[in-house]
Specification:
Oligomer: single chain
Radius of gyration: 18 Å
Number of domains: 1
CATH topology: Immunoglobulin-like
Distance between the termini: 23 Å
Order of helices and strands: HEHHHHEEEEEEEHEEEEEEE
Number of strands: 15
Number of helices: 6
Length: about 270
């Protein structure tokens, strides 16, 4: 069980890192990796908080935050950002900071004390994210490089996660893409048609509900959720359109413009 989950996470990592091509990775989601995943797969993303890297030295933690990893390159006009004037680079950073400030993820459980093997639900709500696709992963803790799918603790996802887009309608596009015969109870989903506009001050609200069966062994378990999203494509200054009509962040498909954020970790008691 755990071995297969690690393999699945590894496949997702390959897709997100671009080993199957940038076009199959963020910012357009991971359409070729419809499987369980863990946030360490998105190496190019910036961490929204050093707390998620707290096992690392302080300097290493800081190097992964937007203040070190993303904003400076824009303001200095490095690589593709050099196409913008100094004033526009400042405007782009201001817009991205607004997206960062208004992007959140929260976790709600049907109960924090359950019997062994009991049914329960976990609801993940996201606010913000640049879109057009954001990712949600239900994880066993809130460490960026050391968390795994919730199933690694003995939980079972009993059916396909129920995804609600920013329009309030159910989405099944992600789990419908699972190969015929494979179970759809996976910890990772893409949410489509997400749009936030920092200039207008409008931000997307989405939801994912997971149906779980608790571990059979009594004890205390932790649960969190990772929210993966982009920032630059929320504004025309940060968007580049390819000849075939696709849109990418100005910094590129593997840019540090992506983010990893965690919901506050919750402890579940099984007894």
């Amino acid at each position: 069980m755990n071995r297969s989950l690690l393999l699945a996470a590894g496949l997702a990592a390959a897709g997100a890192l671009g080993l199957t091509g940038y076009l199959s990775a963020y910012p357009g989601g991971t359409p070729s990796s419809v499987t369980n995943a863990a946030p360490y797969c998105a190496r190019c993303h910036s961490s929204t908080s050093a707390e998620q890297l707290r096992e690392m030295p302080a300097a290493a933690q800081a190097s992964q935050t937007p203040e070190k990893k993303h904003y400076p390159g824009i303001l200095k006009g490095e690589e593709s950002y050099g196409k913008l004037s100094e004033a526009d680079r400042g405007k782009l950073v201001d817009a991205i900071k607004a997206v960062d400030k208004n992007s959140t993820v929260t976790l709600t459980l049907s109960s924090t004390t359950v019997k062994p093997g009991a049914a329960m639900t976990v609801t993940v709500k996201t606010h913000g994210g640049g879109g057009p696709v954001v990712g949600v992963m239900l994880t066993d803790n809130d460490y960026r490089n050391q968390s795994g799918p919730i199933q690694t603790e003995g939980f079972v996802i009993t059916k396909a996660p129920e995804v609600t887009g920013m329009d309030g309608k159910a989405q099944t596009k992600w789990t419908d893409a699972r190969a015929a015969g494979l179970p759809k109870g996976i910890n990772y989903v893409n949410i489509y048609d997400v749009h936030s506009d920092p200039v207008a001050g409008t931000y997307a609200d989405c939801k994912v509900e997971y149906s779980l069966k608790a571990p059979t062994a009594p004890g205390e378990y932790t649960v969190s959720a990772a929210f993966l999203y982009g920032t630059e494509k929320s504004t025309p200054l940060g968007t580049v359109q390819t000849p075939d009509g696709r849109k990418f962040p100005l910094g590129g498909g593997g840019a540090e413009s992506g983010r990893i954020q965690f919901a506050k970790m919750v402890t579940i008691t099984v007894k």
